[in-house]
Design goal:
The chain has helices at residues 2-23, 29-51, 62-88, 91-99, 101-112, 119-135, 143-174, 179-200, 212-238, 241-248, 251-263, 269-284. With 287 residues, it is mainly α.
């Protein structure tokens, strides 16, 4: 059953990237992250109330609280970097790098969670790594564009690193609490972190200037994120992180399909080969 939740998480995560990209054309990425986190928090607690797991919050251990908070901080950092990268670069470039967090997650799961690694997993890691490299397109640009290009790349790499830490910390934290409640708690941490960044950077005054159309897309991306998270952490609770995470990263297929339909972003032959390698490596993780 956890496999079904993992695939559902991938689908909603794919929608999140597209909806978020539509919502940050003229809106500051940090402000957009803070707004959408409110939606995710409300969505998460509604699910908690529906399933009646809120009462168990009083018996959550300090150990579990610690890892849920750490996971929330890592998630917040990953989001802030990811949506800044999306604002600066093309979806078809940013998403593959973010999804490469699979490689680091597998290594961290081996070290900290004791999840075994086989030759099949090793081959899968190589396929994903090579595929990601091929999908990073290099174009001739002027000096200013090159600087911007380096900026999105740095943010995308940081997003991948923090996403890996999120999975490992979340796996540990979610073991001692009902998955929906755990998701709601860590979302609260992300919310606090996101708004702190908004006020520290002095972007709070831009809230009133957010276009209504973009605000709608930001809210929709928040709903998609909430659905993805609930499925993701349910899958993490029941299945191994080294397999759940790669399945979740198949959201790249959904993202690229919609990026073609919505933004007319086309894949080059090299990028298409890279995508095939990433998918092949991900599916190999299920063997």
């Amino acid at each position: 059953m956890w496999i079904a939740f993992a695939f559902a998480s991938a689908f909603f995560a794919g929608l999140t990237a597209i909806l978020a990209k539509c919502g940050i054309k003229n809106t500051d990425s940090n402000v957009a992250t803070a707004i959408r986190t409110i939606i995710v928090l409300i969505f998460s607690w509604i699910i908690v109330l529906i399933f009646g797991s809120g009462s168990s919050i009083t018996i959550v251990s300090s150990y579990t609280w610690t890892f849920l908070v750490l996971s929330g901080l890592a998630t917040g950092a990953s989001w802030l970097c990811y949506f800044r990268a999306l604002q600066l670069g093309d979806i078809n470039k940013v998403v593959p790098i973010d999804k490469s967090s699979t490689v680091l997650t597998i290594i961290l799961a081996l070290i900290f969670l004791g999840e075994g690694i086989t030759w099949t997993k090793c081959i899968a890691v190589v396929l994903i790594a090579v595929g990601t490299y091929l999908m990073i397109q290099k174009k001739d640009t002027d000096v200013e564009q090159k600087v911007e290009s380096k900026s999105w790349l740095i943010y995308a790499v940081l997003a991948a690193v923090f996403a890996s830490l999120t999975a490992i910390l979340g796996k540990v934290g979610i073991e001692g609490v009902e998955s929906n409640l755990g998701t709601a708690i860590r979302t609260g941490v992300v919310l606090i972190m996101a708004w702190l960044v908004v006020f520290v950077t002095g972007k709070q005054h831009t809230l009133r200037k957010t276009p209504k159309k973009e605000l709608l897309f930001i809210c929709l991306s928040g709903l998609a994120t909430g659905a993805s998270w609930l499925c993701y952490y349910k899958a993490l609770q029941d299945g191994p992180a080294s397999v759940v995470v790669p399945i979740d990263k198949l959201s790249i297929l959904v993202t690229i399909a919609f990026s073609y339909l919505v933004f007319k972003e086309r894949l080059t032959k090299k990028s298409a080969v890279g995508l095939c390698l990433i998918v092949a490596g991900t599916l190999a993780m299920l063997i």
